[in-house]
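Filed under: proteins

Residues; backbone shape codes:
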Amino acid sequence: MSLRFGYGLNGFTDHRLADAVAVLADLGYDGVALTLDHAHLDPFAPDLAARTREVAGLLERHGLGVVVETGARYVLDPRRKHEPTLVSDQGRERRIELLERAIRVAADLGAPAVSFWSGIAPAAAGRDELWSRVEAAVSRLLPQADAHGVDLALEPEPGMFVERVADVLELRRRLGAPERLRLTIDVGHLRCTEDADPAACVLGAGDLLANVQIDDMRRGVHEHLPLGDGEVDFPPVLAALAAVEFTGLVAVELPRHSHAAPTLAAASLDFLRDAERAAQDPDRTRRPQEVGR
């Protein structure tokens, strides 16, 4: 087993992109999860293609892989967090445009996947209408994803319309199981919302996995915690990722911890390597040293 560990750059927003990438490369990370936002690569600022080429060169010089994330809080609306979404009553076109840009950016960076989510369901919309909105949006995006050779990795998000892994599978069923529609899992979310334990969820997802975010969490509480501060048992999760032969990045997702990014990045990688060793040794019962304590 040899997993590829990355770090989410939404947890490095107090750093210039070049500095964040250098820190992570020096620590020994294999890649980054790049959120399209004002901090590092603004998807709506001028000369996106040229700026994307610069980022691609930066990552290549440091030997880092990349996956593209689209969960920026205020990139579309400076007053409403995460809005508009794929299920909003108004403005869905703007979210689709962002995802179209993300597909092109991913292709130019050599990223295998764009991660995205559905959004929180408006109170007045029924489930049939919400499914219709998600289906219509993803159906529009799939031909572009296919043309650019990029997977659309839908993330079940606590509190959103597509909240569980089963919801992603339902969308795939409704759309005829398109090859480019795959799955992002956040390991913490699995602990927060799923009935099965996280390792079982990973094994169930199998080769549908296109992107993995990793953080700690507690049952029923959607709060991204440093590894070891919650309830996730990490060695079985990493063993499950190895068992399904996942080759993408397993990227630490701590978007509210930029104030301590270098320290947490170093501790997180030590934790993950320790957990990976524990996953390979059935006689090893010691829990990896906790991060952030």
